[in-house]
Amino acid sequence: KDFEALTNAGNMGLSAFYATRSKEDLSTGFDLELKEMSIEKLVELMPAVDTLLPMLKSFSGLVNCQLAATSKIDTLMNIQLPSLRGVARISGENLVLMDGETFATISKKLKFKNREKNYIDRISVELLLNDNRIEIFPFIAEMDRYKFAISGTQNLDMSFNYNISILESPIPFRVGVNIHGNVDDFGFKI
Asked: Which uninterrupted H or E stretch holds 41?
């Protein structure tokens, strides 16, 4: 309870539990708070985050992260994914989108004012993990002269269904895009 650590990767607070009512009824849970943690160290510390949020490795910078989850476990201490329930909040400012080639294409098409630096001004994402699926609640992302609203669901089999709406842009109209499928085979609809 209330374990705290100060590291060069960021500050951490953790409370966790292990419960055993019987040999067939084992469970575990944790409440983890990371402050000013580099995204690279976050993914290194918890590789499951990269699996659940594969887009995260495209960013660089410092984030604040709060995670809480519970799950049933087997006698070998393996998490039983269908029973996994959790919530998370990830927020950060002045993050860098690292995929240079993709950013160059997007910045040219969307007529970004600053095509050299690929900063995400501010982002705050809240999500719920339940029934083998992650529900991402609507959140705002700001980049260059654009403001986006993003929400959707992602299944643990890596299929997804996202909605991205452009709220502010130098182009005088608003548009929404639904993206669905998986990383290798996806489609979109305006």
From this structure: helix 39-45
- Using DSSP's 3-state secondary structure scheme, residue 101 falls into helix
What pTM does this model have?
0.75
Condensed to tens digits (0 to 9), the pLDDT of residues 42-68 reads 778 776 666 666 667 677 888 898 989
Strand pairing category for 146-155 and 62-73: unpaired
- Bridge partners for 148 per DSSP: 141, 166
Residue with token string 């292990």? 18
Left (φ > 0), alpha (ψ -120 to 50) or beta: where does 167 sit?
A: alpha
Cα 171 off chain centre by: 28
- Category of 10 on φ-ψ map: left (φ > 0), alpha (ψ -120 to 50) or beta: left
Longest Cα–Cα distance in the chain: 62
